């Protein structure tokens, strides 16, 4: 976290050390891969309730992510209030109408065609929780002095990955939603201008009849995403 004034480096012994054998390492890596390959983005949610404590713990997990200068430049707004969710849906769909009416361009719309997206976003009403993720472009001390945050997009991206993994581990599904532009979320969520909304996560249990796009199951093979350089 940011500390005003003179600070100095003070190392402490590494806590929570894990010392695994090569076999244990491979087993852990395999188990996590198996868990995460069963994560699916869904658009059809059940209205089944999810305890706020579960959402809070998953966000707390996201808060353990590494960040530039350890400034932790993120804020999460978890919303269960039906009226607020409806306002977010209405504002998001207004932006989506412009997007799909030509604002996105033909190439972008063609890329989205196999995903099956459109203007209507009922999941923003139905999912029991919406988590709005904000990136703090700069911070402010208690006496109003502004300070700089570092590697903000990278830091928030890592924390968002932690959050999605935590939600999946807790047995929940989520949908990443990025209406463009998203500045309306600052007012709806009562967040300062120093924060930039980067994503809405709709979170809950998948509907009994939930589907996923067939194309979403096609992942690049390992040899296309990995290069190993051995000395």
UniProtKB/TrEMBL annotation:
Gene3D superfamilies xref list: NADH Oxidase
Keyword Flavoprotein: yes
UniProt keywords, alphabetically: Flavoprotein, FMN, Oxidoreductase
Region (Disordered): 1-21
Pfam families, sorted: Nitroreductase
Molecular function GO labels: oxidoreductase activity
InterPro entries: Nitroreductase, Nitroreductase-like, Nitroreductase/BluB
Domain Nitroreductase: 37-205
Superkingdom assignment: Bacteria
Record has Flavoprotein as a keyword: yes
Protein known as: Nitroreductase family protein
Lineage of the organism: Bacteria, Pseudomonadati, Pseudomonadota, Alphaproteobacteria, Rhodobacterales
